[in-house]
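Lab notebook page, bench 4
Experiment: in silico fold of construct C2
Operator: M.H.
Input chain length: 280 residues
Purpose: comparison with the prior construct
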Amino acid sequence: MTINVTATVAATVTAIYIFPVKSLSGISLAASVSTARGLQYDRRFMVVDDHHEFLTQREHPLMATIQTAINGDQLTLTSPFGDEVSVPLEPSLKPTRTVKVWSSRVHAHTVSAAADEWLTNYLGMDARLVYMPDSAERRVSPDYAKNGEIVSFADGYPVLMTSEESLADLNARIVRNGSNGASTIPMNRFRANLVVRSCAAFAEETWRDFQIGDAVFRSAKPCTRCQITTTDQSTGEVRGPEPLRTLATYHDSRNGVRFGMNLLPVKLGTVRTGDSLRLL
């Protein structure tokens, strides 16, 4: 794709996050590389039960309290008690199993018996860590895919973007309505990969194709939100009906309340905090 260097600047990237293990804590980065599946290392690991089905904060909010960190070629998981376990960031070939994430079934590799035991002990249930190898291809919904795009273990799309203005608008309504004890909602409830600012609230839902740094993205669809947004990401505690209750009063759809945009990679490359988002 040819980039128009005079394209309109619509926003600026203020934060970049990856979530190496689906539903565990995220990592803040100054820069990342957009790959075909999403940002590099984002949601390439997942926790499954003894039936090989995915586990998330929806039913197991304690997962939010497990910190993740990348140290060299190792991924480290740490509990609030300080105990930890490390696995290779890009595991060598292990026995393959078919795992289920939503309606998708995809091949994944087992990772580490030690990690399985660690997760089982902390979560209090049978839990196993799996990894999506490069050979696995999980497709984006054909209703929104343009070129047979693939995705990691993310819910459905390679990249999720939100804006600070949209959150400010939401929090103003929560406080004005006196809901949630007038407490505001932090951005980490929405577990976005890219956070931008200097735009109108929910302007991100109007953008189609845009460039950030060396990468180009195309908007797929607004992100419908679930009860994970009601969970305190530092404690794993469910704090009440917000932000879902307030979003339902003004930003609802037939598929559920919306916040943020799901994106498809068009041109791969590096994105950095401070980069301008240019509409194409």
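Observations: The longest strand covers residues 9-18. The two ends are 10 Å apart (CA to CA).
Next step: discuss at group meeting.
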